[in-house]
Amino acid sequence: MEEIIKKAEILIDALPYIRNFFGKTFVIKYGGAAQTKDELKESFAKDVVMLNYIGIRTVIVHGGGPKISATMERMGKKPEFINGQRVTDQETMDIVEMVLGGLINKEIVSLINRHGGRAVGLSGKDGGLIKARKKGIKKPTAETGGGEVIDLGLVGEVTSVDPAVIEGLERSGFIPVVSPIGAGPDGETLNINADFVASAISSSLKAEKLMLLTDVPGLLDKGGKVIPTLRKGEMDALLKDGTIAGGMVPKVMACLNAILNGVGKTHIVDGRVPHCLLLEIFTKEGIGTEILV
After folding, report:
1. Residue 179 scores a pLDDT above 90
2. Which of 154, 226, 251, 271 could form a disulfide with 88 if both were Cys (CB 3.0 to 4.6 A apart)?
3. How far apart are CA 277 and CA 1, in angstroms?
4. pLDDT (tens digit per residue) in 200-213
């Protein structure tokens, strides 16, 4: 009987959060181990379906870098990266679109639907959802001391989001699952960083939360401990001293862009923890790092 009562107490503890978030939209960037390990895939899908049933609208944006690279190698094409960004010629873009929009997107949709959800797969090209432009990066040169602009090919950055297609799906009770592909000015297909796509979509929807699933416990301090809350005014110092570095930089910047554009709260969450979404949303302690203005 005590075990049964404890289960009831857990549900009661979640009640204030359910009440506060009912009818709100959460945008979730899904990637890392949570996207590759079977047990984590299952717990993720169950979390999303549960959120939907209790009245929280969810939009999923997924990545898929490792699977893209593996597919390229099987097809005899070597992946090439500059400063951590994939060089994307037309052949590579064809593979990216096939893997993201065909394989990964439909796998996520099927998994959510199998657990009782009503997921629908989209790419950023569907319904004019994501407009983008080509993105170049600057590489310092010893000769000039300035920056040489490097053409990454069909790599893009978001210029605008039209949320109408997502809002229509949400009103009908569907769960949109979006692959991070956009349309350029001339209709060309562009490969875009999934963190920034999730940030732009959450901003366009004025979402309650943006949640980025990662393969680390959260943003760590110099001692290796999780920083539970990070405010905008603290970011410059942490960037300067290297606390925020490497792959964490785009995630923190994606969160910052979102909260500066109307998103309620942003979170960097350890996707390796089963049911990480429920733990972050429905407990006072939460897990990972919360980023606020």
Report:
1. yes
2. 154
3. 28
4. 999 999 999 999 99
